[in-house]
Amino acid sequence: MATTLSSFALIPIIILVIIVNGGEARPSSSSNNRPKAFFVFGDSLVDSGNNNYLATTARADAPPYGIDYPTRRPTGRFSNGYNIPDLISQKIGSPESPLPYLSPELTGQRLLVGANFASAGIGILNDTGIQFVNIIRMYQQLEYFKEYQRRVGGLIGAEGAKNLVNQALVLITCGGNDFVNNYYLVPYSARSRQYPLPEYVKYLISEYEKLLQRLYDLGARRVLVTGTGPLGCVPAELAQRGRNGDCAADLQRAAALYNPQLERLLQELNRKLGRNVFIAVNTAQMHNNFVSNPSQFGFVTSKVACCGQGPYNGLGLCTPVSNLCPNRNLYAFWDAFHPSEKANRLIVEEIMTGSTTYMNPMNLSTILALDDTT
Ligand SMILES: *[C@@H]1O[C@H](CO)[C@@H](O)[C@H](O)[C@H]1NC(C)=O
Ligand SMILES: *[C@@H]1O[C@H](CO)[C@@H](O)[C@H](O)[C@H]1NC(C)=O
Question: Buried-most residue among 174, 219, 259, 370 (CB within 10 A)?
Answer without folding.
Answer: 174
